[in-house]
Amino acid sequence: ILNYDIMARFRRRTCIILLLFILFICSIMMALKTLRPDRAGFGDPFGLGLLPELQQREVLLDNKQNLLNRVQGDTATRVSNLHSVAVNTMKASMSSVNKLEEDLSSPNYNFHIFYYSWFGNPQFDGKYIHWNHPLLPHWDPKIANNYPKGRHNPPDDIGSNFYPELGSYSSKDPSVIEAHMKQMRSASTGVIALSWYPPGMADENGEPTDDLVPVILEHAHKYNLKVTFHIEPYKDRDDRSMYHNVKYIIDKYGAHPAFYRHKTSTGRFLPMFYVYDSYVTIPEIWANLLTVSGSQTIRNTPYDALFIALLVEERHKHDIHRSGFDGMYTYFATNGFSYGSSHHNWASLKAFCDSNNLMFIPSVGPGYIDTSIRPWNNHNTRNRVNGKYYETAFSAALLVRPEIISITSFNEWHEGTQIEKAVPKRTGQVVYLDYKPHKPNVYLELTQKWSEKYRKEQEQWLM
């Protein structure tokens, strides 16, 4: 009997211990299960769910789980999973936005790029504008007779030697403006020098575009770009009209966050205006506007600004100084075409500007060809040499350590200076140039490369 009692107690103790052990094992299993996501496949490393492409898979799996729960009638789980789908979708969306921001280089506000908003097509403008540019005759009638006349016939025949990836677009098309801003930001430029005519005015082949400025400012702001104005030689441009037009621009657009203001050496933040073909107006007229003692002076008023004149010939540097301008730019993308556009003259121009408290802004370009609108002008063509011409221009600009570099251009398609994306195209007897063997965005990438190089070198200049 004693042995029986001992054996019975032993068996009970053993059962209790075994039961406790089983409960312990079950607890461990449950704990491990709660630490590991149910949907994780075997061997899935921790953190992959944070990646956007895997979040999409998470959302799909959540949807499948929701369907199963509906069949089972599990309302609580269904609501929970719907919330999970919403959270994961939001995370995926935010990741996409952040990825887009990461892919775009930071804007360089010392890189200014000339931009034209004068293009139109039937969809947005009722007709083609600028793409149907006429063939301009040579000034010598004997030479002019040797070349074709007429105008281009879009969309297959346009006034350009290259063909845009976006086709014969309208500058009013919001999707085009968006694409342009994204391209300029990807190139690490920071300031858009917008070609501008006063309200109701335009070039001889275009139509007024001032009403497009607010849209451009909005899209530019989205990409942290700034907008300055490249004032064209409109009819009767003089000291009086310039005063009123500068006042108009600053009053109407000056409060916008995308409106460009340049920090001067004295710490002031002033608007900047490029003045194209400034040399056609005599220095005495400009001095009325741009010197403190001038009869129409804009100096020390709420409309004071930095005015940058176009230098073509060497003698223009003295006229620019006498006129009261704050600096000079060279615009043309043709090395050797003019004194100002010749790279080997930039060092002496920079020295002149430094000694006279002026800004020197060299203009670099990827090449030049305008024979689609000036068929007689082949001698001024500058081959792109697969990007080498562009890089040579940047290298020459960096040698003179400029405060600002301007780029000719983003989309002056008529003169073949664009860095906007272009594609191969052949239509009938027209074969367009292209950027091969490189991709359509090669000149955007080269601009970004030199923008970063400029930043690094500028840090050394300032040390």
Number of H- or I-type helical stretches: 13
| C-alpha termini separation | 101 Å
Helix content estimate: 40-55%
Might you state the CATH topology name?
TIM Barrel
Number of strands: 12
CATH class: Alpha Beta
- CATH architecture heading: Alpha-Beta Barrel
The unreliable regions are 31-97
Structural class given helices, strands, pairing?
A: alpha/beta
Main location: Golgi
Keywords: Golgi apparatus, Hydrolase, Membrane, Signal-anchor, Transmembrane, Transmembrane helix
Membrane topology: Single-pass type II membrane protein
GO molecular function: glycoprotein endo-alpha-1,2-mannosidase activity
Could you please describe the fold and organization of this structure?
- It holds the Pfam family Glyco_hydro_99.
- Its EC number is 3.2.1.130.
- It is found in: Golgi apparatus membrane.
- This is Glycoprotein endo-alpha-1,2-mannosidase.
- InterPro entries: Glyco_Hydrolase_99.
- By secondary structure, the protein is of the alpha/beta class.
- It has a single domain, classed as TIM Barrel.
- It contains 13 helices and twelve strands.
- The strands form two sheets. Strands 1, 2, 3, 4, 5, 6, 7, 8, 9 and 10 form a ten-stranded mixed beta sheet that branches. Strands 11-12 form a two-stranded antiparallel sheet.
- Helix 12 links the parallel strand 9 and strand 10.
- Helix 2 runs antiparallel to helix 3 and helix 9 packs parallel to helix 10.
